[in-house]
Specification:
The protein is built from six helices and no strands. The radius of gyration is 16 Å and the shape is elongated. The relative contact order is 0.17.
């Protein structure tokens, strides 16, 4: 959630202001914050649950990178590509959403790999 806040509330904020009427204002979004928190908790649970089932015999860094890339291809790339098709936003904004969203989940994959190391693979990098 922190990563999304940095990306969408910070880095991409100026892009979003160019598309007033497409996105909620920060003030309006505040009343939906509990839904945002719940959505991120569900994603964190699913991310961890699926990761724990992946190739524990691989070194944690390789496992985390592969998982992060797979999640980026499953979530960030198609989600923001679909948003681009259905929302009147620029190609630049959509490209940055895809790039930064993918980078975030790849980093999270590596973090998960480090945290959820198996005994046999934890000694290797």
């Amino acid at each position: 959630m922190v990563g999304d806040f940095v990306i969408h509330g910070g880095i991409l904020r100026s892009y979003y202001t160019q598309f007033q009427g497409v996105f909620r204002s920060p003030e309006e979004s505040q009343k939906y914050l509990p839904i945002m928190v719940l959505a991120h908790l569900v994603m964190a649970f699913a991310f961890s649950m699926i990761f724990s089932e992946t190739a524990p015999d691989r070194p944690w860094l390789q496992r985390g990178l592969r998982f992060g890339i797979a999640v980026a291809l499953l979530m960030a790339v198609p989600t923001y590509a679909i948003y681009f098709v259905v929302q009147p936003i620029s190609g630049t904004l959509a490209s940055l959403q895809i790039l930064l969203g993918s980078l975030l989940v790849i980093i999270l994959g590596v973090v998960a790999g480090f945290i959820i190391r198996s005994d046999t693979a934890s000694e290797r990098v």
